[in-house]
Amino acid sequence: MQDILTLLGITDTNKGTSTGAQWLASTGQTITSNSPVNGQHIANVVVTDAEGYEAVMQKAGEAFQEWRLWPSPKRGEVVRQVAEALRKYKEPLGKLVSYEMGKSLQEGYGEVQEMIDICDFAVGLSRQLHGLTMHSERPGHRMYEQWHPLGVVGIISAFNFPVAVWSWNAALAWVCGDVCVWKPSEKTPLCAIACQHIVAEVFAKNNVPEGVCNVVIGERDLGERIANDTRIPLVSATGSTRMGKAVGAAVGARLGRSLLELGGNNAIIISKDADLDMALIGCVFGAVGTAGQRCTTTRRLIIHEDVYDSFKNKLVAAYKQLRIGDPLDQNNHVGPLIDKGAVDQYLQSIEKCKKEGGQFVVEGGVLEGSGYESGCYVKPCIAEAQPNYEIVQHETFAPILYLMKYKTFEEAVAIQNGVPQGLSSSIMTLNLREAEQFLSSAGSDCGIANVNIGTSGAEIGGAFGGEKETGGGRESGSDAWRIYMRRQTNTINYTTSLPLAQGIKFDL
Ligand code: NAD
Asked: Which sites are catalytic (predicted)?
């Protein structure tokens, strides 16, 4: 791992405040990054202090004045080169993601691939930031709209996607002409330091002004500083619903824009007409992938009574095959949770479920002994539960899967929608009528609704995000770029008179 850290520019103690190629001195404390894989200390990062933050904001403001004037396709060309650099560093960066965050190596590589994909998408987008042309009601007038760069975009990200979520925002923001200030999760600061080194090299080669890509390191208080900073017109925040409520309120109070990507409580409906073998793979990957620490993790299965027992037996058999251990060993399916605090939450949720009447058909527990020294490895477990249990309504960021039974399709949709969150959902069925009803306005209330694939994972081409307590934000593909720009409506009069709209008369 030492070779990889060196290659990615990480030393024993790293500066955590950067405006691009420059790393600014800060006098603050340090954050320690420990790997959940083996419990070992990886490196320290110096926290951004108030002075460092001001220096970054000053530089970001200056950089925006220049960057907004670059033609968008030229900005796209720089982002194309960022994608090339990420291709070059895919292996070491993917390994660092896996080592610092604990997800499987395949998923670490997948995360870097997602960064490459969004950069490629953004390159094309840089020539397509279209506005509309409208017909004016006044003769000799032309009306159209254009999209202008917005300014400084604050990005607050969660630990579970330590690099991809930032790139979803940054790649689009850059082609839109914005500059970014990124505060990564305090649990995964090294992934951010590595990304900053990779981007800075490309930016320097292209004479991109210092201050277009900024990183600041700190905990919740630094996130609050960003949320309250009136110089930041857009704050994109990914994390828990608790965090989103605080950020949304702070940004709203100053009438800024927020893009919130918060917790999920995702369900799959297993119809009696499902291909059960195919459904099994989607459910197991969705429930145990990233050790249940994806916002799109499958947390609930709503199973038709006719196939309930047979599908439950398949699941129990599949869980017996799971190999839990070092995520960098590609033979393992499930890695560790992020830290011991997450392990405590997992244990408390199991207890709570039992108290409410839940019956565990696959028991949970913390693994001990050789290979599990970090104390962060837990057993994925399955409980039979009722939809109204408090714990079932709550997102526990761990591999706990709840099974529920249904009789009618309407009942299944009501259970699926009957939680505060609204991120991802799916139905496994070969029945066309059911599939279409699930996707109709009377079906799933989530931002993502799938048929015959699981809830977990998404491609960058679609807009990503969810409703209700998931926060309502949309990132990544489709027209998600619009939130990073300001819309301006222009009306031009090319006549010699000045007719007013709505036929209003005003003579001097
Ligand atoms: P978290 O809310 O604890 O922290 C996320 C980030 O917010 C961190 O950088 C943290 O420092 C910062 N933060 C915390 N409180 C803040 C506040 N009051 N003001 C400003 N910043 C604050 O979340 P986490 O444990 O890192 O991540 C797990 C959560 O993220 C889960 O709920 C998961 O579902 C969610 N998530 C959602 C998506 C999505 O796209 N919907 C994607 C990934 C993760």
From this structure: 261
Q: Are residues 328 and 476 in the same domain?
A: no
Contacts of 507 (CB under 8 A, 6+ apart): none
Please check whether residue 372 is in contact with residue 269, taking contact to mean a CB–CB distance below 8 angstroms: no
Return per-residue pLDDT of the chain as tens, 508 residues. Answer: 999 999 999 999 999 999 999 999 888 799 999 999 999 999 999 999 999 999 999 999 999 999 999 999 999 999 999 999 999 999 999 999 999 999 999 999 999 999 999 999 999 999 999 999 999 999 999 999 999 999 999 999 999 999 999 999 999 999 999 999 999 999 999 999 999 999 999 999 999 999 999 999 999 999 999 999 999 999 999 999 999 999 999 999 999 999 999 999 999 999 999 999 999 999 999 999 999 999 999 999 999 999 999 999 999 999 999 999 999 999 999 999 999 999 999 999 999 999 999 999 999 999 999 999 999 999 999 999 999 999 999 999 999 999 999 999 999 999 999 999 999 999 999 999 999 999 999 999 999 999 999 999 789 999 999 999 999 999 999 999 999 999 999 999 999 999 999 999 998 8
465 within some domain: no
Would you state the structure tokens that stand for residue 240, as one six-digit string? Answer: 């828990």
Query: What secondary structure, in 3-state letters, does 92-159 show?
Result: HHHHHHHHHHCCCHHHHHHHHHHHHHHHHHHHHHCCCCCCCEECCCCCCEEEEEEEEECCEEEEECCC
Question: What is the three-class DSSP state of 232?
Answer: coil
Choose the catalytic residue: 186, 261, 395, 469: 261
Q: Is the dihedral of CA 441, 443, 448, 451 positive or negative?
A: negative
Is the pTM higher than 0.90? The answer reads: yes
In a domain, 106, yes or no: yes
Task: Please choose from 220, 228, 393 the residue to mutate so as to test ligand 1's pocket, defined by most ligand atoms within 8 A of CB.
Answer: 220
Q: How many whole angstroms from 396 Cα to the centroid of ligand 1? A: 13
Residue type, 485: M
> Ligand 1, from 118, 216, 243, 262: best to mutate by most atoms within 8 Å of Cβ?
243
Cα–Cα distances (Å) from 119 to 79, 261, 485, in that order, read 6, 20, 18
- CA nearest 298: which of 446, 112, 85, 77? 446
3-class SS string, 373-387: CCCCCECCEEEECCC
Instruction: Tell me the residue range of the domain where 129 lies.
Output: 2-262+471-488
CA distance 158 to 186: 9
Rounded to a whole number of angstroms, the distance between the first and last alpha carbons of the chain is 79
Does residue 26 lie within any of the structural domains?
A: yes
Asked if 395 is an active-site residue, the reply is no
Q: Is 395 in the pocket of ligand 1 (CB under 6 A)?
A: yes
502 within a domain of the structure (yes/no): no
